[in-house]
Structure to design on (325 residues):
């Protein structure tokens, strides 16, 4: 394999005998169930001897809002996490080597040494087939601090930070950023926000806050710009979004650097947090579109600790028992 070895994580031994047919089925199935941007599954998986190679498919077209390919690499990271958990569940140590060549990611996982799977790995592996995107509003049951801690810890590793949005000021700032991004990006993202807030409480604080975003990027001002006078669905305003954020558990996953390798790491963190949550009865969804705007990434980074670049937003909660899914 050519390219820059940006992510070597451990030395591996000579691969021995090949994966069995059962192992091939388990590894392939785990990768198939990973979340991916617009369900594109932008990777290929090659299984040979005791090696599994996950390669980013550069030919999968990039959405117009993501010409840098961030989402494609985050998707590959999520698939890599599932692959590693599957290798571990089979009782092999997973030796991982991630490389980026010409902007495309190749991850090699070797399972040639026996190693006992941990309870946490097993629990997350078993959650792979249950995990799915849950976009509507959640039920009213609150997520306990213990569970929030375990989900945040799952998303945190060297170079990757998981951080909950906390309190009114952060929720309001985030609401403004999402509102701003919705106006800039339009259509699909507006639809996602309107689903999120279909149960949003109304009458939240009506503060006008200037977060330094580029007002010229708005197509118009006021509520009309985000749905009423266009063919797009009605989108809640920033205050409604803030109220919704405040009553949900919204996690920001950030990375210390912002290179292709970091996007893969963010994807691994997304999937680990999602599987941890799923194993504890929570449901979740992910949103990355607002973070395709550099100014939103910068503002959100400033709002948090200013030390890491936001890569993904995830919301967690319990399903609404009164809603059919
Ligand atoms: C990097 C990335 C970005 C995503 N962005 C969004 C999004 O903005 N809105 C959304 O509803 N789902 C988003 N998703 C979720 C995918 O649409 C979803 O994973 C895919 O359709 C497969 O469905 P599943 O998650 O239920 O298995 C994203 C997933 C990934 C990995």
């Amino acid at each position: 394999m050519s390219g820059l070895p940006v992510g070597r994580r451990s030395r591996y031994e000579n691969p021995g005998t090949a994966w069995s047919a059962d192992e091939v089925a388990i590894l392939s199935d785990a990768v198939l169930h990973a979340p991916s941007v617009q369900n594109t599954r932008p990777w290929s998986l090659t299984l040979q001897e005791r090696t599994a190679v996950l390669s980013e498919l550069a030919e999968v077209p990039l959405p117009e809002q993501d010409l840098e390919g961030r989402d494609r690499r985050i998707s590959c990271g999520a698939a890599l996490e599932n692959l590693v958990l599957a290798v571990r569940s089979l009782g092999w140590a997973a030796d991982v080597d991630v490389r980026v060549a010409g902007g495309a990611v190749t991850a090699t996982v070797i399972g040639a040494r026996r190693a006992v799977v941990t309870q946490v790995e097993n629990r997350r592996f078993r959650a792979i087939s249950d995990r799915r995107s849950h976009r509507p509003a959640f039920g009213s049951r609150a997520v306990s601090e213990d569970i929030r801690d375990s989900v945040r810890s799952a998303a945190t590793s060297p170079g990757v930070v998981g951080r909950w949005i906390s309190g009114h000021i952060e929720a309001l700032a985030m609401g403004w950023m999402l509102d701003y991004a919705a106006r800039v990006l339009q259509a699909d993202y507006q639809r996602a926000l309107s689903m999120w807030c279909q149960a949003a409480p109304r009458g939240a604080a009506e503060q006008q806050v200037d977060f330094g975003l580029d007002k010229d990027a708005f197509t118009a001002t006021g509520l009309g710009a985000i749905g009423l006078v266009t063919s797009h669905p009605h989108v809640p305003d920033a205050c409604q979004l803030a109220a919704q954020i405040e009553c949900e558990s919204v996690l920001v996953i950030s990375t210390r650097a912002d290179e292709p390798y970091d996007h893969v790491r963010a994807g691994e963190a997304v999937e680990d947090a999602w599987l941890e949550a799923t194993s504890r009865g929570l449901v979740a969804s992910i949103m990355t579109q607002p973070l395709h705007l550099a100014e939103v990434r910068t503002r959100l980074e400033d709002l948090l600790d200013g030390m890491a670049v936001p890569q993904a937003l995830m919301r967690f909660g319990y399903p609404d028992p009164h809603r059919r899914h």
Remarks:
- Residues 176 and 300 are 11 Å apart (CA to CA).
- Residues 35-39, 71, 74-75, 78, 132-133, 135, 192, 285-289 surround flavin mononucleotide (CB under 6 Å).
- The chain has two domains: 4-127, 145-317.
